[in-house]
Design a protein that fits this description.
about 260 residues, alpha+beta, Thrombin, subunit H, 3 helices, about 15% helix, about 30% strand, globular, disordered N terminus, binds arginine
Length: about 260
């Protein structure tokens, strides 16, 4: 049921991406009618300039993280098929998307996870036409060691279901939710080794439309940021008993690394 709605949502998102040149995503197609929707605020706060310097905004209305000077890690559902693609603009280095100090770079190639079919495997790499060497990259988790605890999420997406995209980057923290618990909420839809859930049972804090593709991250043993998730989907935003669902980066770390190498690093 929710899967079916997700498909519709994806089709709608694709349509928006195709018809609108820049983003304006989109009341999720599965949002309940207004009368039925509490004004769920995503529950975040403004990020400070420089706090998450690896954050990327993509012109189709998604987030991403700088994986290497030339590569942005995002969600498969944010991009089209693998191949040459010069139509995406990445904005980097700023919390304010209108800032005159923003860096803007075009894409020249998209690599979408092999086997991606709308369910799981929700990752992709976008190659930038010009390397960005003035910003730090975000390293990815290569084992499940950090697939627990409290995570930070960030993005320019909606602050409530059906809400507007944001000019200023926002952040929130959300606790890990086990696959078993997440599957009990989502009726078994979670692909345990490909997806990782996070959120409060009471709701109130979550990623939302337009945050997709952005990183979910935490501190590692050396107190460095490490990416454990990619914002992927959820039933609405911040609803009780519907945590956010994120791509489990550790599962795909070696596939991401090989793809990155094949794209020139
Ligand atoms: N699929 C959404 C996007 O394209 C992200 C949804 C995240 N939803 C959530 N409840 N955590 O931006």
């Amino acid at each position: 049921m929710v899967r079916w709605r997700r498909l519709i949502g994806r089709l709608a998102a694709a349509l928006v991406a195709v018809t609108a040149g820049s983003f304006v995503l989109a009341v999720p197609a599965h949002a309940k009618p207004a009368s039925d929707v509490t004004p769920y605020v995503v529950g975040g706060t403004l990020a400070a300039q420089g706090e998450f310097p690896f954050m990327v905004r993509l012109s189709m209305g998604c987030g991403g993280a700088l994986y290497s000077p030339r590569l942005v890690l995002t969600a498969a559902h944010c991009v089209g098929r693998t191949g040459t693609n010069t139509s995406i603009t990445a904005t980097l280095g700023v919390v304010d998307l209108q800032s005159s100090s923003r860096i803007q770079v075009r894409s020249n190639y998209v690599y979408r996870a092999p086997g991606y079919n709308g369910s799981g495997k929700d990752w992709a790499l976008i190659r930038l036409a010009t390397p960005v060497t003035t910003l730090p990259t975000l390293k990815i988790a290569t084992s499940t060691a950090y697939d627990n605890g409290t995570f930070t999420v960030a993005g320019w997406g909606a602050t409530r279901e059906g809400g507007a995209q944001q000019r200023y980057l926002r952040k929130a923290t959300v606790p890990f939710v086990s696959d078993a618990t997440c599957n009990s909420y989502y009726g078994g839809q979670i692909i345990a080794n490909e997806e990782i859930c996070a959120g409060y049972a009471s709701g109130g804090v979550d990623t939302c439309q337009g945050d997709s593709g952005g990183p979910m991250f935490r501190r590692d043993a050396n107190n460095a940021w490490i990416q454990v998730g990619i914002t992927s989907w959820g039933n609405g935003c911040a609803r009780p008993n519907y945590p956010g669902v994120y791509t489990q980066v550790s599962t795909f770390a070696s596939a991401i690394a090989s793809a990155a190498a094949s794209l020139g690093g």
